[in-house]
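An instance as discussed:

___
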Amino acid sequence: MKVLITGTSRGIGKETAKKFLEMGHTVIGMDIVPRSIDHANYTHLIVDVAVDPLPEIGGVEILINNAGIQSQTEKDIAVNLNGTIRITEKYAFQDAIRAVVNVASSSGTTGSEFPEYAASKGGMIAYTKNIAQRLSKFGATANSISPGGVVTELNDHILNDPKLYSAVKKEALLHKWATAEEIADWIYFIAVINKSMTAQDVLIDNGESANYNFIW
């Protein structure tokens, strides 16, 4: 299938692109920096999803909105939410579409982390349900995935601080973070194998949001 993935130069987006390529799909990646994937079936486009003119790409069958930032400014909303809306409205609503997956965050449900970031990811979850309603006439699904802590370059400031990393892992019931490869597997399952789940958010946070201290 023809797959469009945003934010493919590192982290979850890169691993997701590699997963789809491994499974035999054709992948078009978008990012603000040059390619980091070398594969015959991969095309890389340098695009800022928030502001740049969007190229014409016909017949997208799977759309993965992964591009995102955590700047603690209004840019989080511009890129994470508005960028997702721009990409989806441009490429999703046509006869070839089979699935849309938006990479949100557990913060979009819990409200934790920084205000603009949490708001942007919460907006993505709500927008996913809107997409699902409008994609149903094409027989296509739309879902979001909400990772908690993930081992990626974006979190190097935590991963490289043993004391801090130990502390944040203790907040999760399973006392660990997910890998980018694991999240890519989830995205692939939701986009390709799943045929009946739509308008849902899948929370993958190792039990962090379910953790609490019971005081009697």
About this structure: The longest helix spans residues 115-135. The two ends are 55 Å apart (CA to CA). The mean pLDDT is 95.
